[in-house]
Design a protein that fits this description.
Layout (H helix, E strand, L loop, with lengths): L9 H27 L13 H29 L8 H16 L8 H9 L5 H32 L6 H23 L5 H9 L5 H10 L1 H16 L1 H30 L12 H17 L9 H13 L2 H32 L4 H65 L1
Helix pairs in contact: 1-13, 2-3, 2-5, 2-10, 2-13, 3-4, 3-13, 4-5, 5-6, 5-9, 5-10, 5-11, 7-8, 10-11, 10-13, 11-12, 12-13
Length: about 425
């Protein structure tokens, strides 16, 4: 007998080796990042200065708090299902997801699929996907709110740029306000329409169409769960506030770095460098970087945005003095966080105890549901048995009346005789 060759589908291969795929993707992204930043032009002497490590430690502290807030956001979105996941493991999933987003083009190519694959170990695919997409929505809304705050800050500082820059930023801010309103208040299905759109693309459309149709119910269930979360205004408002606070903390990082390297210099208004100017720097860098979203880790694009906004605040000599150290500290901190996250990809494992407890709870719930269903069936059977009995009881008096009449009639005839 000839043994049948076991066919390995693309889906099963990805499920089996997805960690290694993401690990290789992350390593490739880091290599691209190093090349894009041109190591030959980096002032390596700054690494030997004690102040470099002081400000670096402050930045790591800020980002530790930011990642904690992102993890908290996931727990609020998952609600009771979040209890199935160990806090440290949830933190690692969140941290690693951002690392993969940093080194992949378009920002969502690596992190979101990885988070879904990891969360599937604890909750259903629909819950994992809906939680991840819901997180992406509030994360994007947090970015839009940051840009709104940046434009407002820019106006409050008297539009310090050139006329062209003022018009550009104000126009972008107007469109951004509309996008913010739509993202927060407009509820539309997301997953199934996107999958339907992919089926119409040339080349891959016909190949994935059967899969999309077969999983239609799952995609619609994911959309339903996302909309249920977004209709819960209390929960949605809390996570949106948390995400906006995390964006403000990112602005705090820029403020700390620039203030550290100013050495007594002040911006062009003659006042000490303050947090709101750091917010303006951060929002401009983020806006320019996201406009060029295809570049991994926004290499070069953030630097361009920073050069633009520093020109508003400082003269050319001061700008040259603080620009390079600021880039270096920010990029080095980001590089270390990304490297740690990529290393975590290979080390992320299932929490067996949490999974065992989750399976036990699911078994108990299934048993309760089975008992309830059995009780409902028994109640229905009793009702069915009682119904014919009631009919017989109604008929018995009628028969008795007929018998009485039939008996009385001969008696009347006897009396007449």
């Amino acid at each position: 007998m000839t043994e049948k060759k076991r066919k390995i589908s693309v889906g099963s291969f990805f499920k089996r080796y997805y960690k290694y795929i993401f690990l290789l993707l992350g390593i490739a992204g880091i290599v691209v990042l190093v090349i894009a930043n041109d190591p030959a032009n980096i002032e390596w002497s700054l690494f030997t200065e004690g102040r470099f490590f002081i400000i670096l430690a402050e930045c790591f502290g800020v980002w530790l708090l930011i990642y904690f807030l992102h993890t908290l956001t996931y727990y609020i979105i998952l609600k009771k299902d979040g209890k199935k996941i160990d806090p440290w493991h949830m933190f690692k999933i969140t941290f690693t997801g951002f690392a993969l987003n940093n080194v992949t083009p378009a920002g969502l190519v690596g992190g979101e699929p990885y988070r879904i694959m990891e969360l599937k170990k604890y909750v259903s695919t629909e819950k994992a996907a809906s939680a991840t997409f819901s997180f992406t929505i509030v994360y994007a809304a947090g970015h839009l709110l940051l840009w709104d705050a940046g434009v407002i800050t820019y106006i409050c500082f008297g539009l310090p740029g050139s006329t062209l820059v003022d018009i550009l930023l104000l126009t972008t801010g107007g469109f951004n306000l509309i996008a913010t309103f739509c993202l927060i208040f407009l509820r539309v299905n997301l997953v199934y329409p996107i999958m339907r759109f992919l089926t119409k693309l040339p080349g891959i459309g016909k190949k994935i169409a059967p899969m999309v149709e077969a999983k239609k119910e799952k995609y619609m269930e994911i959309d339903r769960r996302i909309n249920v979360f977004r209709k819960d205004w209390f929960r949605f408002g809390i996570v949106l506030l948390i995400q906006f606070v995390s964006r403000l903390l990112e602005a705090l990082e820029y403020f700390l770095i620039i203030r550290f390297f100013l050495n007594g210099y002040t911006p062009m208004d003659g006042k000490p460098f303050n947090y709101f100017q750091g917010l303006m720097v951060m929002s401009t860098c983020s806006l320019i970087g996201n406009l060029l979203f295809l570049i991994p880790m926004q290499a070069g694009s953030r630097e361009g945005g920073m050069q633009l906004v520093l020109a508003f605040l400082f003269n050319e000599a001061v700008k040259k003095q603080i620009a390079t150290p600021t880039f270096l500290v920010y990029r080095f901190r980001e590089f270390i966080c990304t490297l740690i996250g990529i290393i975590m990809v290979a080390g992320t494992r299932r929490n067996k105890r949490a999974i065992a407890e989750a399976e036990k709870r699911e078994a108990e719930l299934a048993l309760e549901a089975e008992k309830a269903e059995q009780a409902a069936k028994e109640a229905a059977e009793i009702n069915n048995e009682q119904q014919p009995v009631e009919v017989e009881e109604m008929e018995e008096p009628i028969e008795e009346k007929v018998d009485e009449n039939s008996v009385e009639e001969p008696n009347n005839e006897d009396n007449l005789q």
